[in-house]
Design a protein that fits this description.
Helix content is 73%, strand content 3%. Strands 1-2 form a two-stranded antiparallel sheet. The relative contact order is 0.15. It is mainly alpha-helical. It has a domain at 178-246 and 276-339: Four Helix Bundle (Hemerythrin (Met), subunit A) (Up-down Bundle). The mean pLDDT is 90. A hairpin with a 2-residue loop joins strand 1 and strand 2.
C-alpha cells in the first residue's frame, strides 16, 4: 500500500463530502435572506412560513456541515505535516481568518437568529440572518484565498527552507481567485435553487394542501437556478485564461509549459509533471452537466400561468435533475485539485514531500475512520433533510410561537 495514495484518497473523500454541505449552505442562506426580507417588506405570511420551513433545513445542513469541516481540517496536521511545516506560515493565515469568521461570527449570528424568533424586533432578527449570509460568503472567500495560493503561490519568500508571507495583498489579488470564487458561489446558488425547486415539485406532485406556498418556492427555486447557471458557466470558462497563464500544465498545456517543466526538472529532478487524466475527464463531464442545467432555462417560460405545474412532467424533470449540480461540483473539485498534481503547492512543494511520515497501516486506518465518520454525518444530514422536507411547512419547529403560559398556580405566592 502506498502511503501517499492513501492520504490523497482520504483527503479527496472527506473534502468531497464536506463540499456538498458548503454549496447547500451558500445557496440556502441566500434564498433565506430573500424570503425573510420579503416577509418584512410585504408583511405576507407566506414568506415567513417559507423562511421557517427552509430555515429548518438550512440549520440541519449547517450544523452537520460544521462537524464535517472540523473533522476535515484535522487532516492538515495528521496527514499533511509537510504542508503545514513548509507553507503553514502563508497558507495558515487565510485559514485562520476563515475559522474566525465561520466558527465564531457566523455561528454566533446563526444561534441568535435561531433563538431570536418572537424575542427580537423583526428588523433586528432579519439583520442577524444577513449577518449569517455575509459571514458565510466571507468564509467561502477565505477558503478560496487559501486554495488559490496552493494553485498559484504568491506573496511569499523562502527562508531556511520555509515559505514566509511577505505580501498579504498578493493573496487577495491572486489571478486564480476571482473567477474561481464566482464559480463556487454560482454553484452554491444553482444547488440551493435546484434543491428548493425539487422539494417544492415533490409536494406539488403529491398535491400537498399548501399549494400557494410550494408554488411560490418552486418559482423562486427555478428562477434562482436559471439565473445562477448563466453566471456559473460564465465564471467557469473565464477561468481558462488565468489558468493557462499561471498553470500551463493543468489542462493540456498553455504557453511556457515546456520551459516551466524544464525548470522543475532541474530543481526537483526528472519526473512526470503531467496531471492525471482524471482532471480532464472531470472537467469534460462537468461542462456537459453545466450545459444540461443551462437547458433548464426552457422551464422559465412555463412559470407563466403555472404551466410548469399543470403539465406535471416538468416537475418530474426537476426532481430527476436534482443530483446534477452536486455531481458537477464534485467533478469541478476533481478538475481543480487533481489538475494541480503532482504539486500540493504548484511548482513549490511536491505532494510526496507534504505527506506525513507515517506507515501505510496507520494511514489506512485513518482513511477508513475518517471516511466512516464523514459518511455517517452526510447520511444523517440527507436523512434528516428528506424527513423534514417531506413533513412540509405546516408547523416547523423553527420559529414556532412560544406556548401560552400553562402554570396551574398563577398566584405569585405559588410561583
Amino acid at each position: 500500500m502506498d502511503t501517499l495514495l492513501l492520504a490523497r484518497l482520504q483527503f479527496a473523500t472527506t473534502t468531497s463530502i464536506h463540499f456538498l454541505f458548503v454549496v447547500v449552505t451558500l445557496g440556502l442562506v441566500t434564498l433565506l435572506v430573500g424570503l425573510q426580507t420579503a416577509a418584512l417588506v410585504t408583511g405576507k405570511p407566506v414568506y415567513e412560513r417559507l423562511t421557517r420551513f427552509w430555515g429548518q433545513l438550512y440549520v440541519i445542513n449547517y450544523v452537520l456541515g460544521i462537524a464535517t469541516g472540523i473533522v476535515m481540517e484535522f487532516q492538515f496536521g495528521l496527514n499533511w505535516s509537510g504542508l503545514s511545516r513548509y507553507v503553514g506560515n502563508v497558507f495558515g493565515a487565510p485559514l485562520a481568518m476563515e475559522t474566525l469568521v465561520a466558527f465564531f461570527l457566523e455561528s454566533t449570528f446563526l444561534g441568535m437568529w435561531i433563538f431570536g424568533w418572537h424575542r427580537l424586533r423583526r428588523g433586528v432578527h432579519l439583520a442577524l440572518l444577513w449577518g449569517v449570509a455575509l459571514t458565510a460568503y466571507a468564509s467561502a472567500f477565505w477558503i478560496m484565498v487559501a486554495n488559490s495560493w496552493l494553485q498559484h503561490p504568491v506573496g511569499y519568500e523562502l527562508r531556511d527552507g520555509v515559505a514566509h508571507l511577505t505580501d498579504f495583498g498578493a493573496l487577495l489579488t491572486n489571478p486564480t481567485l476571482g473567477f474561481a470564487l464566482g464559480h463556487v458561489v454560482s454553484a452554491g446558488l444553482v444547488a440551493g435553487g435546484m434543491l428548493m425547486a425539487a422539494v417544492s415539485a415533490w409536494h406539488l406532485l403529491r398535491r400537498t394542501p399548501d399549494f400557494d406556498l410550494h408554488r411560490t418556492a418552486l418559482r423562486l427555486g427555478v428562477l434562482t437556478a436559471a439565473v445562477s447557471v448563466v453566471f456559473l458557466i460564465g465564471f467557469g470558462f473565464a477561468q481558462f485564461g488565468p489558468i493557462n497563464r499561471v498553470q500551463p500544465t493543468k489542462y493540456g498545456g498553455g504557453p511556457g509549459r515546456d520551459a516551466l517543466v524544464a525548470g522543475w526538472t532541474a530543481r526537483f529532478g526528472p519526473g512526470d509533471y503531467t496531471p492525471p487524466v482524471l482532471s480532464s475527464v472531470g472537467l469534460g463531464f462537468m461542462i456537459l452537466i453545466g450545459f444540461a442545467l443551462f437547458a433548464g432555462l426552457l422551464l422559465v417560460p412555463l412559470l407563466a400561468r403555472d404551466a410548469i405545474i399543470r403539465l406535471r412532467f416538468p416537475l418530474w424533470l426537476i426532481l430527476l435533475a436534482l443530483p446534477l449540480p452536486f455531481v458537477a461540483v464534485l467533478l469541478g473539485w476533481i478538475a481543480r485539485e487533481v489538475g494541480r498534481q503532482p504539486w500540493v503547492a504548484y511548482g513549490l512543494l511536491p505532494t510526496g514531500q507534504a505527506v506525513s511520515p507515517v506507515g501505510p497501516g496507520v494511514m489506512l486506518a485513518s482513511l477508513i475512520g475518517f471516511t466512516l465518520l464523514l459518511g455517517a454525518l452526510a447520511g444523517t444530514n440527507w436523512v434528516l433533510l428528506a424527513r423534514h422536507a417531506a413533513r412540509g411547512a405546516a408547523d416547523p419547529a423553527l420559529g414556532r410561537p412560544p406556548a401560552p403560559d400553562t402554570d396551574p398556580h398563577p398566584d405569585p405566592v405559588f410561583a
